[in-house]
Design a protein that fits this description.
Chain lengths: 400, 400
């Protein structure tokens, strides 16, 4: 029983994801696949376009055998926290043989070379990093410049894409955890994550979402599998999505005008705090708020993470209290997934959560899990049907 | 210079209001009129259908000379607090000769008789009240039954309408303040406040609002002056209203699910607190939330006041900190209004606020005033144009 692990969001699942999954299976030669997937809020720092159960169904239809939820605390944090949470969770299962992720060039060696420096921090690198940070540029940029000094490589190209940034973080986490999971990478196909154009064979999830928000499902048919289309169509008909960050504009602007404490939130520095409060006096919309704040120093991604954590009442202390997820929340599985679950039950130390009503009995510390419950209760405020509440307790596990 | 005072909401101003204003002027024989008006949130415990500047314009067009804002802390509280805040404000002006209000029967004597008992609390009344309260019925009902024991009168009829309840509270406040303002009452015309039918010569503001929300302005033309219609039409075209409580459903349900402390809010008892938290887990809408909670014991009105105070972050402590409004916030005036303002400047102890940017200089305690500013910033979250913010600082005083 060889088991492949993947870390996904499927927001929504498109042809590029399908390609990646098939390529990963054949590269790793695994016959079982486990996905750790973001729940109702994702790493971009916003709600997913449809909820976690709908995206779990997409995952199973695509050929994933078991879907486990990445706790929202990690799913909505920096690339480093996201990766650490997801890799630690996969590692804690004690059954995963390979982790396969996309990267721009599909070259695991050049990524490992970078990671070695980042983890070991040899003196020339550390010195350079320190110098650059003094000049007030972002950490990401300082790191890039410092790496350039010690590696004879096209370091900018490698670090500029979000796929590679995540890839490096996955590798860092594996190394840190001394995990036996073997990393593999697949060369990513299609346009960059940030491209919003729909053309060619593949489209990015961002461009697909943008087109769905602007014009519905019609334009994106060639870029998503038929099952994704059907799941999205049915969801939208029921008034369950597409969910955008704008649905939470009133809540967030209101909270900021009420001077909800920002200093308790991860990655908030004092200058940024005041910028955010001030901007909340100037607009009623989140997208405009972000535009007002973002700068070279404060990236859009950082602001989004902060706002999402504010929305979900996620305090930075939670990252100190936990070293990775303390539960395995099952979102869905197929028959092969049941076999994997049996293995996990035998080999993992973490409690497996299938019946939500039992969570208090199963967990010593419920804080992280209750953030997932709250995230769902916030997410469904965007649904047309106002009686949809407490969905984590009511929604069945997805089985196909 | 004889000056009439009225306490209004004009939500929106309709023909019944117009009748009341003209009748009050002729009964009091005054040639100047000052209105104390609720701002962006009203006594029903919800947002006004259009903002305070639009309703000020209606008031001036109807023949009011000077419009003063009733601080939101009082405007959104119980009948007792509402009346006390408004009467105290009128009294503090030191220029008002008469206060004229509507009542169902237009009989000031029978109202004064009731008020005497309520203020002096003779032993038979006090005893009876105590007995009834023991049985767990609402204070309003216990008071009614106790009054019935000591007054030979159709007390139920008198106390059952919100107009009379307010009338009694106005008289109580005048008595408490030993105010020189002479009370007058006009028999109310048209259907009861609670009637939602549109028929006959007059319609209630509630029925007019309901029809506007359901079907726009068409049905209500016969019940509102033309200027009201034009002001509403223009506002709606700009996406500024009609504003309903539902616009704030997400914020309120979110706050309740976040366990925002209810115990700090006026009129919250422990049983009610838990009922409200529980109900917030069952629906995403405010109207449904209220339906789930309301009972003989917890009236809809009480729940609405609590939710509005939660929305506006109004803590019950503010009622202890202040004994009535500590400022005179001018919303609008005509030429005669300027004359009244000159008189007020001479005779009143309270600071007059016309330029909002000066409020910190003018007020020793800014807390109550800042609640008005915050209320406006919450209110305009319901506007289509997302750049409308900080309106108290930007909107000119209404002058005609």
């Amino acid at each position: 029983m060889k088991i492949l692990g993947v870390i996904v969001e499927y927001n929504p699942l498109h042809n590029g994801h399908l390609y990646h999954l098939q390529a990963s299976k054949s590269l790793s030669n695994c016959d079982y696949t486990v996905a750790v997937m973001s729940g109702n809020f994702v790493q971009r720092g916003e709600p997913a376009i449809v909820d976690k159960w709908k995206r779990t169904l997409m995952a199973l239809k695509a050929g994933i055998d078991l879907v486990i939820e990445l706790p929202v605390v990690y799913a909505t944090s920096t690339a480093e926290n996201f990766a650490y949470g997801a890799v630690k969770l996969l590692d804690s299962l004690n059954v995963i043989d390979y982790l396969c992720f996309g990267s721009e060039r599909g070259n695991i060696e050049e990524l490992l070379e970078i990671v070695q420096i980042l983890v070991e921090e040899p003196p020339p690198y550390k010195q350079a990093l320190k110098e650059y940070l003094k000049n007030g540029i972002t950490f990401a940029k300082a790191r890039e410049l410092a790496l350039k000094k010690v590696i004879n490589n096209e370091i900018e190209k490698i670090l500029q894409t979000s796929n590679n940034i995540l890839a490096i973080e996955y590798l860092k986490s594996l190394k840190k955890l001394k995990s036996p999971i073997k990393p593999l990478t697949i060369k990513r196909k299609g346009p960059l994550y940030t491209s919003l154009e729909l053309k060619g064979e593949f489209a990015s999830a961002s461009s697909i979402r943008k087109h769905i928000f602007d014009r519905g499902l019609k334009d994106v048919e060639n870029y998503i599998p038929n099952f994704t289309k059907e799941i999205l169509k049915e969801s939208f008909l029921k008034g369950e999505g597409p969910v955008s960050f704008e649905e939470f504009s009133k809540i967030l602007i209101y909270k900021l005008r009420s001077k909800a404490p920002l200093e308790d939130i991860f990655d908030v520095s004092e200058g940024l705090e005041n910028k955010i409060y001030k901007a909340s006096q100037l607009t009623n919309r989140i997208d405009e708020l972000i535009k007002l704040i973002k700068s070279k120093r404060y990236t859009e991604s950082r602001i989004r993470h902060i706002l999402t954590h504010l929305l979900l009442n996620i305090d930075k202390k939670i990252f100190e209290e936990f070293d990775g997820p303390n539960y395995i929340r099952i979102l869905g599985f197929n028959k092969k997934g049941i076999e994997i679950l049996k293995e996990i039950k035998k080999k993992s130390q973490l409690p497996i959560i299938t019946k939500i009503s039992h969570y208090k009995r199963k967990l010593n510390n419920v804080k992280m899990f209750e953030k997932d419950l709250f995230a769902t209760d916030v997410y469904t405020l965007a649904y047309k049907n106002s009686s949809i509440t407490g969905l984590d307790f009511k929604h069945p596990i997805i089985k196909i």
